[in-house]
Amino acid sequence: MMDDLTDSFAGAGDMGADGSPERLHGALAHRLAVDILKNIHPPGTILPSEIESSGTLNISRSAYREAIRILAAKGMVESRPKAGTRVTQRSRWNILDPDVLGWMFETEPSEDFIKGLFELRLINEPAGAGLAALRRTDAQIKDMADGLERMAKYSLATEAGRKGDIDFHHALITATHNEALVSLSTSIGAAITWSTRFKQRRNALPRDPMPDHIKVFDAIVAQDIGLARWCMESLVRMALDDTQRSMD
Protein backbone atom coordinates (compact mmCIF):
# COMPACT_ATOMS: atom_id res chain seq x y z
CA MET A 1 0.00 0.00 0.00
CA MET A 2 2.76 2.44 0.96
CA ASP A 3 4.47 1.89 -2.40
CA ASP A 4 1.23 2.77 -4.20
CA LEU A 5 0.84 5.90 -2.15
CA THR A 6 4.43 6.85 -2.89
CA ASP A 7 3.74 6.57 -6.63
CA SER A 8 0.70 8.82 -6.23
CA PHE A 9 2.37 11.56 -4.22
CA ALA A 10 6.10 11.41 -4.95
CA GLY A 11 7.37 14.76 -6.14
CA ALA A 12 4.20 16.55 -5.18
CA GLY A 13 5.73 18.30 -2.19
CA ASP A 14 3.09 20.33 -0.38
CA MET A 15 1.07 21.05 -3.49
CA GLY A 16 -1.49 19.14 -5.52
CA ALA A 17 -1.98 19.15 -9.26
CA ASP A 18 -3.71 22.54 -9.11
CA GLY A 19 -1.05 24.04 -6.85
CA SER A 20 -3.14 23.90 -3.67
CA PRO A 21 -2.23 22.10 -0.43
CA GLU A 22 -5.93 21.30 -0.02
CA ARG A 23 -5.78 19.22 -3.15
CA LEU A 24 -2.91 17.15 -1.75
CA HIS A 25 -4.28 16.36 1.70
CA GLY A 26 -7.71 15.74 0.20
CA ALA A 27 -6.21 13.21 -2.22
CA LEU A 28 -4.30 11.55 0.61
CA ALA A 29 -7.43 11.34 2.78
CA HIS A 30 -9.27 9.81 -0.19
CA ARG A 31 -6.59 7.18 -0.72
CA LEU A 32 -6.32 6.27 2.96
CA ALA A 33 -10.12 6.03 3.22
CA VAL A 34 -10.38 3.68 0.24
CA ASP A 35 -7.64 1.49 1.73
CA ILE A 36 -9.57 1.39 5.01
CA LEU A 37 -12.74 0.41 3.16
CA LYS A 38 -10.84 -2.31 1.30
CA ASN A 39 -9.73 -3.64 4.71
CA ILE A 40 -6.07 -2.96 3.96
CA HIS A 41 -6.23 -1.12 7.28
CA PRO A 42 -8.90 -3.02 9.25
CA PRO A 43 -10.69 -1.42 12.20
CA GLY A 44 -8.46 -1.40 15.25
CA THR A 45 -5.17 -1.15 13.35
CA ILE A 46 -2.72 1.73 13.71
CA LEU A 47 -1.94 3.76 10.59
CA PRO A 48 1.69 4.55 9.71
CA SER A 49 3.01 7.40 11.83
CA GLU A 50 3.05 11.01 10.72
CA ILE A 51 6.85 11.04 10.48
CA GLU A 52 7.02 7.73 8.60
CA SER A 53 4.28 8.66 6.16
CA SER A 54 5.46 12.19 5.44
CA GLY A 55 8.99 10.94 4.75
CA THR A 56 7.92 8.00 2.58
CA LEU A 57 5.37 9.99 0.58
CA ASN A 58 7.50 13.12 0.25
CA ILE A 59 4.77 15.30 1.70
CA SER A 60 4.83 17.68 4.64
CA ARG A 61 3.76 16.53 8.08
CA SER A 62 1.10 19.25 8.06
CA ALA A 63 -0.45 17.80 4.88
CA TYR A 64 -0.56 14.36 6.47
CA ARG A 65 -2.11 15.77 9.64
CA GLU A 66 -4.80 17.54 7.59
CA ALA A 67 -5.63 14.28 5.79
CA ILE A 68 -6.01 12.53 9.14
CA ARG A 69 -8.23 15.37 10.40
CA ILE A 70 -10.52 14.85 7.42
CA LEU A 71 -10.90 11.16 8.22
CA ALA A 72 -11.31 11.84 11.95
CA ALA A 73 -14.13 14.30 11.24
CA LYS A 74 -15.92 11.52 9.36
CA GLY A 75 -15.44 9.11 12.25
CA MET A 76 -13.09 6.76 10.39
CA VAL A 77 -10.00 7.24 12.58
CA GLU A 78 -9.07 8.59 15.98
CA SER A 79 -5.71 9.96 17.09
CA ARG A 80 -4.37 9.86 20.63
CA PRO A 81 -1.06 11.14 21.99
CA LYS A 82 1.60 8.41 22.03
CA ALA A 83 -0.93 5.85 20.80
CA GLY A 84 -0.98 6.92 17.13
CA THR A 85 -3.89 7.03 14.71
CA ARG A 86 -6.21 4.05 14.94
CA VAL A 87 -8.89 2.99 12.45
CA THR A 88 -12.23 3.06 14.27
CA GLN A 89 -14.99 0.48 14.17
CA ARG A 90 -17.34 0.76 11.21
CA SER A 91 -20.26 1.58 13.52
CA ARG A 92 -18.59 4.95 14.22
CA TRP A 93 -18.19 5.98 10.59
CA ASN A 94 -20.40 8.72 9.20
CA ILE A 95 -21.79 6.52 6.47
CA LEU A 96 -24.11 9.24 5.14
CA ASP A 97 -21.31 11.75 4.63
CA PRO A 98 -21.22 12.38 0.84
CA ASP A 99 -17.45 11.79 0.71
CA VAL A 100 -17.70 8.52 2.62
CA LEU A 101 -20.50 7.33 0.32
CA GLY A 102 -18.36 8.16 -2.70
CA TRP A 103 -15.37 6.32 -1.25
CA MET A 104 -17.53 3.28 -0.47
CA PHE A 105 -18.75 3.07 -4.05
CA GLU A 106 -15.14 3.09 -5.27
CA THR A 107 -14.86 -0.32 -3.64
CA GLU A 108 -17.39 -3.09 -4.25
CA PRO A 109 -20.05 -2.33 -1.64
CA SER A 110 -21.89 -5.28 -0.18
CA GLU A 111 -25.46 -6.07 -1.10
CA ASP A 112 -26.46 -5.43 2.52
CA PHE A 113 -24.99 -1.93 2.32
CA ILE A 114 -26.85 -1.25 -0.94
CA LYS A 115 -30.10 -2.51 0.57
CA GLY A 116 -29.55 -0.34 3.62
CA LEU A 117 -29.23 2.79 1.51
CA PHE A 118 -32.43 2.01 -0.37
CA GLU A 119 -34.23 1.21 2.88
CA LEU A 120 -33.23 4.68 4.06
CA ARG A 121 -34.67 6.14 0.88
CA LEU A 122 -37.88 4.13 1.26
CA ILE A 123 -38.33 5.44 4.80
CA ASN A 124 -37.86 9.08 3.79
CA GLU A 125 -38.67 9.73 0.15
CA PRO A 126 -42.25 8.45 -0.18
CA ALA A 127 -43.23 10.45 2.90
CA GLY A 128 -41.33 13.41 1.47
CA ALA A 129 -43.22 13.13 -1.81
CA GLY A 130 -46.51 13.17 0.08
CA LEU A 131 -45.52 16.29 2.01
CA ALA A 132 -44.29 17.94 -1.19
CA ALA A 133 -47.68 17.29 -2.82
CA LEU A 134 -49.32 19.04 0.12
CA ARG A 135 -46.94 21.99 0.51
CA ARG A 136 -45.12 22.66 -2.78
CA THR A 137 -44.99 26.14 -4.23
CA ASP A 138 -45.14 27.14 -7.88
CA ALA A 139 -41.42 27.98 -7.76
CA GLN A 140 -40.60 24.51 -6.43
CA ILE A 141 -42.72 22.88 -9.13
CA LYS A 142 -40.69 24.87 -11.65
CA ASP A 143 -37.42 23.68 -10.07
CA MET A 144 -38.58 20.05 -10.22
CA ALA A 145 -39.63 20.45 -13.85
CA ASP A 146 -36.25 21.99 -14.73
CA GLY A 147 -34.42 19.04 -13.20
CA LEU A 148 -36.59 16.56 -15.10
CA GLU A 149 -36.05 18.41 -18.38
CA ARG A 150 -32.28 18.14 -18.02
CA MET A 151 -32.53 14.52 -16.96
CA ALA A 152 -34.57 13.73 -20.09
CA LYS A 153 -32.36 15.79 -22.40
CA TYR A 154 -28.99 14.41 -21.30
CA SER A 155 -29.88 10.99 -19.74
CA LEU A 156 -28.45 9.42 -16.61
CA ALA A 157 -25.44 8.24 -18.61
CA THR A 158 -24.07 11.80 -18.44
CA GLU A 159 -23.00 14.08 -15.62
CA ALA A 160 -25.49 16.74 -16.77
CA GLY A 161 -28.36 14.25 -16.70
CA ARG A 162 -27.43 12.97 -13.26
CA LYS A 163 -27.25 16.57 -12.02
CA GLY A 164 -30.79 17.10 -13.30
CA ASP A 165 -31.91 14.00 -11.38
CA ILE A 166 -30.30 15.22 -8.16
CA ASP A 167 -31.79 18.69 -8.59
CA PHE A 168 -35.25 17.14 -9.04
CA HIS A 169 -34.94 15.16 -5.81
CA HIS A 170 -33.49 18.14 -3.95
CA ALA A 171 -36.34 20.39 -5.10
CA LEU A 172 -38.83 17.73 -4.04
CA ILE A 173 -37.35 17.41 -0.54
CA THR A 174 -37.17 21.21 -0.24
CA ALA A 175 -40.87 21.35 -1.13
CA THR A 176 -41.68 19.40 2.06
CA HIS A 177 -40.81 22.53 4.05
CA ASN A 178 -39.59 20.12 6.74
CA GLU A 179 -36.24 21.26 8.09
CA ALA A 180 -35.28 17.81 9.37
CA LEU A 181 -35.99 16.16 6.01
CA VAL A 182 -34.23 18.91 4.09
CA SER A 183 -31.13 18.31 6.22
CA LEU A 184 -30.98 14.81 4.71
CA SER A 185 -31.13 16.11 1.15
CA THR A 186 -27.36 16.16 0.58
CA SER A 187 -26.93 12.60 1.87
CA ILE A 188 -29.88 11.29 -0.13
CA GLY A 189 -28.58 13.09 -3.21
CA ALA A 190 -25.16 11.50 -2.74
CA ALA A 191 -26.72 8.06 -2.34
CA ILE A 192 -28.68 8.57 -5.58
CA THR A 193 -25.63 9.86 -7.45
CA TRP A 194 -23.26 7.07 -6.47
CA SER A 195 -25.79 4.25 -6.84
CA THR A 196 -26.74 5.56 -10.31
CA ARG A 197 -23.10 5.56 -11.38
CA PHE A 198 -22.53 2.18 -9.76
CA LYS A 199 -25.36 0.36 -11.50
CA GLN A 200 -24.19 1.43 -14.96
CA ARG A 201 -20.46 0.88 -14.39
CA ARG A 202 -20.44 -2.15 -16.69
CA ASN A 203 -23.60 -1.84 -18.80
CA ALA A 204 -26.14 0.78 -19.75
CA LEU A 205 -29.18 1.19 -17.53
CA PRO A 206 -31.65 -1.65 -18.21
CA ARG A 207 -34.65 0.67 -18.49
CA ASP A 208 -35.60 4.31 -18.84
CA PRO A 209 -36.26 5.80 -15.36
CA MET A 210 -37.95 8.93 -16.72
CA PRO A 211 -41.55 7.62 -16.68
CA ASP A 212 -41.24 6.82 -12.95
CA HIS A 213 -40.00 10.33 -12.18
CA ILE A 214 -42.72 11.93 -14.29
CA LYS A 215 -45.41 9.99 -12.38
CA VAL A 216 -44.06 11.34 -9.10
CA PHE A 217 -43.95 14.86 -10.51
CA ASP A 218 -47.48 14.70 -11.92
CA ALA A 219 -48.85 13.47 -8.59
CA ILE A 220 -47.15 16.33 -6.76
CA VAL A 221 -48.49 18.87 -9.26
CA ALA A 222 -51.98 17.40 -8.75
CA GLN A 223 -51.50 17.57 -4.97
CA ASP A 224 -52.46 13.89 -4.73
CA ILE A 225 -50.67 12.95 -1.50
CA GLY A 226 -51.39 9.21 -1.59
CA LEU A 227 -50.44 8.82 -5.25
CA ALA A 228 -47.24 10.84 -4.78
CA ARG A 229 -46.19 8.51 -1.95
CA TRP A 230 -47.04 5.40 -3.94
CA CYS A 231 -45.24 6.59 -7.09
CA MET A 232 -42.10 7.51 -5.15
CA GLU A 233 -42.03 4.15 -3.37
CA SER A 234 -42.36 2.42 -6.73
CA LEU A 235 -39.54 4.56 -8.18
CA VAL A 236 -37.16 3.69 -5.33
CA ARG A 237 -38.01 -0.03 -5.38
CA MET A 238 -37.37 -0.27 -9.12
CA ALA A 239 -34.08 1.60 -8.71
CA LEU A 240 -33.07 -0.98 -6.10
CA ASP A 241 -33.97 -3.81 -8.49
CA ASP A 242 -31.81 -2.21 -11.20
CA THR A 243 -28.89 -1.87 -8.78
CA GLN A 244 -29.15 -5.47 -7.59
CA ARG A 245 -29.25 -6.73 -11.15
CA SER A 246 -26.09 -4.76 -11.91
CA MET A 247 -24.37 -6.55 -9.02
CA ASP A 248 -25.36 -9.93 -10.46
Automatic annotation (TrEMBL):
Coiled coil: none annotated. Keywords: DNA-binding, Transcription, Transcription regulation. It comes from the Bacteria. SUPFAM superfamilies: GntR ligand-binding domain-like (SSF48008), Winged helix' DNA-binding domain (SSF46785). Residues 22-90 form the HTH gntR-type domain. InterPro entries: GntR_C, TF_FadR/GntR_C, Tscrpt_reg_HTH_GntR, WH-like_DNA-bd_sf, WH_DNA-bd_sf. This is FadR/GntR family transcriptional regulator. It comes from Asticcacaulis machinosus.
